[in-house]
Design goal:
about 70 residues, mainly alpha, two-stranded antiparallel ribbon, 2 helices
């Protein structure tokens, strides 16, 4: 079997990533809900606002596909 078509798989990954990002933003502490913590700098947080969800989805889908590509 050929499995799912690539476009359908990508849509599914985006949908699951969006649900996960929304859930993470709701359960995170208020100061981290829409902020990106910068590694190695203790007190630097970038407020991404609504773009936090977009950024989180791109990171999750990109990481998933990058790992899949090396497999």
């Amino acid at each position: 079997s050929k499995g799912l078509p690539g476009k359908l798989k990508l849509v599914g990954q985006i949908l699951i990533g969006a649900i996960a990002a929304f859930w993470i933003s709701k359960i995170a502490p208020a100061e981290l809900a829409n902020n990106l913590a910068v590694p190695f700098f203790k007190d630097i947080f970038l407020n991404l606002g609504i773009f936090y969800l977009v950024f989180a989805v791109v990171v999750m889908v990109g990481a998933s596909n990058a790992v899949n590509l090396t497999d």
